[in-house]
């Protein structure tokens, strides 16, 4: 077989996206996948324990929603700082710092003696939570071939569903072994798991050569001001708006769905876990499928398609009549699929919008600005729920996807673009 034929075979096939990363790229993929999966785990434990936390501290649904909102708002600061650090000290070093940060403060949440302390610890957890994606997604994107970048980074995004599934399994186990007043604390203490990942990342993962060379250059160091200069100003504004719409809708769902299932659908811990299992299965397949769709259809069309479908499914899911739980169960799969598939294009799209010198900063700021602004939706839903119920209020989250569609009007299509 000729060398050219062998190379062609290597770059084709269902796993070509992984093979073409090379040895160092594959190690980076494993590190970023683990980091984002455990990031998801540490984020989801709050939503899963929210009913018990609300009862333990005697707080309102609005105050409960604020616990997630403050995490997401502070994550914007964490993501921005991590993005700048990724351009200055490297993607891998920044990844390690962010993983350590979200792990430590998740564990500390389990020791909170009052609502105010929990609020502070949860806010500080947001620093690491926001920063991990900024470092991990850029790290992997810079190893990818353009034709496979969408699906490769989408597989990293699918780690969110894996971490979510793990948190549901641990939640079911913990809440069946311990009384609620202790169970929610134990759930937070399991947030120490990411410490194991740090050992692997430190030993095995390296930055892409181009990023190392850029960092050695004296011509430019990552800075927040750089993404607000010239043509990048428009890019940054509309990319931030896109991230706001997508994440406003998603975090409304992630924050309030477990409460909706338990408090309004009357499901038990095991029953809630069963319904979430179908939702998470749809999410995992959605993340992966979305990556292939974004490489095939293009970044912008993929965002628009799944934004419309996500909004429609949230409205259907939350308005199913009482007693029709079978319909709720069946709708869980497409809901999880669409609200996750829309995220698959973010890693590749944001990486392609910015040059190497500002890529970490651009991705870190825009994605996490979206988290912060989108975080207003769970809190608003929490306060609206006091008057119209959680299910009724969650419809408001569907409106966020309309913002995402409007934002696409100001952004270019980047499919196939070489990173520069």
Task: Please explain how this structure is put together.
The protein has 19 helices and no strands. It has 420 residues and is an all-alpha fold. The protein has one domain: MFS general substrate transporter like domains (Growth Hormone, Chain: A). The longest helix is centred in the N-terminal third of the chain and has 36 residues, at 22-57. The two termini are 34 Å apart.
Produce a short descriptive summary.
The chain is mainly alpha-helical and 420 residues long.
Give the low-confidence spans.
1-9
Classified by CATH, the class is Mainly Alpha
* Tally of distinct domains: 1
What is the residue-averaged pLDDT?
Answer: 85
Number of strands: 0
Structural class comes to mainly alpha
In whole angstroms, the N-to-C terminal distance is: 34 Å
Tell me the radius of gyration.
Answer: 20 Å
How many helices? The count is 19
Order of helices and strands: HHHHHHHHHHHHHHHHHHH
| Bulk shape | globular
- The H-level CATH homologous superfamily, spelled out, is MFS general substrate transporter like domains
The helical percent reads over 70%
The biggest sheet, with number of strands, parallel, antiparallel or mixed sense and barrel status, is: none
Residue share in β-strands? under 5%
CATH topology annotation:
Growth Hormone, Chain: A
Name given to the CATH architecture: Up-down Bundle
């Amino acid at each position: 077989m000729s060398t050219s034929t062998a190379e062609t075979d290597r770059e084709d096939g269902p796993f070509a996206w992984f093979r073409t990363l090379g040895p160092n790229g594959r190690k980076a993929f494993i590190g970023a996948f683990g980091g984002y999966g455990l990031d998801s785990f540490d984020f989801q434990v709050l939503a899963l324990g929210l009913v018990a936390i609300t009862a333990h501290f005697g707080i309102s649904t609005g105050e409960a929603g604020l616990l997630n909102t403050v995490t997401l708002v502070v994550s914007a600061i964490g993501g921005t700082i991590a993005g700048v650090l990724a351009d200055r000290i490297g993607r891998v070093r920044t990844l390690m710092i962010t993983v350590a940060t979200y792990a430590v403060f998740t564990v500390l949440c389990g020791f909170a003696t009052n609502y105010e302390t929990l609020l502070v610890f949860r806010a500080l957890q947001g620093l690491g939570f926001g920063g991990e994606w900024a470092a991990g997604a850029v790290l992997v994107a810079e190893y990818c071939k353009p034709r496979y970048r969408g699906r490769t980074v989408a597989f990293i995004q699918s780690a969110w569903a894996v971490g979510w599934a793990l948190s549901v399994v641990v939640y079911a186990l913990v809440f069946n072994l311990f009384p609620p007043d202790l169970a929610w604390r134990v759930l937070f203490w399991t947030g120490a798991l990411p410490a194991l990942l740090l050992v692997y990342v430190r030993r095995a993962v390296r930055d892409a050569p181009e990023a190392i060379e850029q960092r050695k250059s004296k011509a430019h160091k990552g800075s927040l001001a750089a993404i607000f200069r010239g043509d990048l100003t428009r890019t940054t504004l509309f990319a931030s708006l896109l991230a706001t719409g997508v994440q406003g809708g998603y975090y409304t769902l992630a924050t309030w769905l477990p409460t909706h299932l338990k408090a309004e659908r009357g499901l038990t811990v095991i029953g809630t876990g069963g319904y979430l299992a179908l939702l998470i299965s749809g999410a995992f397949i959605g993340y992966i499928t979305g990556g292939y769709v974004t490489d095939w259809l293009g970044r912008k069309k993929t965002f628009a398609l799944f934004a419309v479908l996500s909004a429609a499914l949230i409205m259907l899911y939350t308005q199913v009549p009482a007693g029709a739980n079978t319909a709720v169960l069946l709708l869980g799969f497409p809901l999880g699929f669409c609200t996750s598939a829309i995220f698959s294009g973010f890693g590749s799209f944001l990486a392609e919008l910015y040059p190497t010198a500002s890529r970490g900063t651009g991705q870190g700021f825009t994605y996490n600005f979206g988290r912060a602004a989108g975080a207003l939706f769970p809190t608003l839903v929490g306060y609206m729920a006091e008057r119209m119920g959680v299910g009724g209020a969650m419809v408001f989250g569907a409106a966020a996807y309309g913002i995402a569609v409007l934002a696409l009007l100001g952004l270019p299509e980047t499919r196939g673009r070489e990173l520069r």
